[in-house]
Amino acid sequence: MVRKSFLLLVLLALLVPMGLAGCQQGAPTEAPKPTQAPAVQPTQAPAKPTEAPKPTTAPAGFNWKQLAGQKITVFLSETPMAVAIRSHLQEFKDLTGIDVDYLVVAENEYWSKLSIDLSSGAGQFNVFMSGPTLNWGYASAKQIQPLDPFMSDKSLTPADWDQADFYPWALEANRWDGTPGPAGLGKGQLWAMPINAVNNLLAYRKDLFEKYGLKAPDTWDQWAEVAKQLKEKTGGTVDGKPFYAVAQRGALDLTTLSGPFYSGLFSYGGADFNQDLTPAVNSPQSVAFQKLYMDTIKSTGSPEWPNQMWFDVQQGFTSGQYGMVFDVGDFVPTYEGSGSAVAGKLGYAEPPAGPDGKRFSSVWTWGLSMNAATKGDKAKAAWLFIMWASDKKNMTEFAKTGSWPTRVSVWNSPEVVEFSNKFGNGEFRKAFDKVLSNDVKWLVAPMVDASAVEQIWVKGLHDYYYGKGTMQEIMDNVAKQMTQEMKDSGTLK
């Protein structure tokens, strides 16, 4: 039965362009259109590394050249983090003497290539981009290796790398001891080094809100009410073009159940699973939120919701088609970028609160994991790359692409403060500070079955959208299917 679940997980990874169980983000300039995935970039043949002097930032006594002559392959999905790593790669080569081949592909191709390499044991990709939900399956199948032994080795990790500088939630989200459900989260081994923190906030058309005398919603109930008012006051048209009050992800894809959706569900008092791992999708609070959420999308959102991936939401809002979007902060540089129809017209706010005042941002982190097939000195070289990419200097540079950092000192560094204050006349920075300080939490229950049960759940939301039953009826059926899936896999007895 366990094998069945694992095979299903791999199959889903092959068929579904998963991104962010918590949410993937697009490049900070223009996201790829759904039918125009970026072409695969060929593996780069690096020049022979030069023996450049160690930078002054390298701590005395640490030997960056200890693995000189080794060669590793790094696999990246096209994101702001990938753009940043690629642009600074020569610095790593000069610093360490380690050759690096890299491959960058579009997200819809990334997961299938990665799954094939990991499941086959080929070990082509020594280091690759990943995140918590994905690593639950990889770790259970022993396809990736824990990073703690490398991190605790003083010969491989200089003291000023500073593990304590990471936001605690960023490391906890990437730790799991293999126990299904909330009890195992934040415990055990570290399976990915988090570099990009993908958190959620509300972006809205401040110009239109001021024109119509509306205030940014502070609660989910207000979000629904403001959406109705926007539809009424605009008449569904702005600047002679179709206009919709809200934009949210909706494709029959796991990214629909990502950070934005989970943030609202848990803020409203709902949950994915109970502590005993029985499904909570049909609890009164979960049903109430999902009904509010879906009714608002049906009545004030685009009829394209069933097909909308994250890049459709990002680009639709950038084009001026929507009044509000609750999604990840990594999209903000695109919203405010060159060619955006809404640049300079936006306001930003914390995630809406639920009826009892709870307010969550369900975090996703993009990070780097190490292939279990990578051994010996090649594994040490791979670790030096992971450590280099996650240090303070590089994370500061990466943040300038919109890849928001997982380190406290980097978010508060002068360079990142200056960059993030450009958006919304400082309103983005102010709102995101509150998110990072008060709202961030990993909410999704870890388990190998995650992909299978989420696929059932998304199908249920589509059934409601198309009027196939009440939310309670549909979620009762979803809970039954989830339970059976988890029993078949052995997760539930």
Low-pLDDT regions: 1-58
Helix content: 40-55%
What is the 3D form? globular
Mean of residue pLDDT?
88
Q: Helical segment tally?
A: 20
Strand order of the largest sheet: 2-1-3-14-6
Radius of gyration: 22 Å
Counting DSSP E segments of at least 2 residues, the number of strands comes to 15
Query: Helix- and strand-based class?
Result: alpha/beta
Distance between the termini: 12 Å
Q: How much of the polypeptide forms β-strand, as a percent range?
A: 5-15%
The biggest beta sheet reads: 5 strands, mixed
Walk me through this protein's architecture.
A hairpin with a 2-residue loop joins strand 8 and strand 9 (241-242). Helix 19 packs antiparallel against helix 20 (471-489). Mean pLDDT is 88; it is low at 1-58. The protein has helices at 2-15, 80-87, 89-96, 107-120, 132-140, 148-151, 168-172, 206-211, 220-234, 259-267, 284-300, 310-318, 332-335, 376-389, 392-399, 408-411, 414-420, 427-439, 450-465, 471-489, and strands spanning 71-77, 99-105, 127-130, 175-176, 189-190, 193-198, 200-205, 237-238, 241-242, 244-247, 322-328, 346-349, 361-362, 364-370, 440-441. The strands form five sheets. The protein has a five-stranded mixed beta sheet. By secondary structure, it is an alpha/beta fold. The protein starts with a helix and ends with a helix.
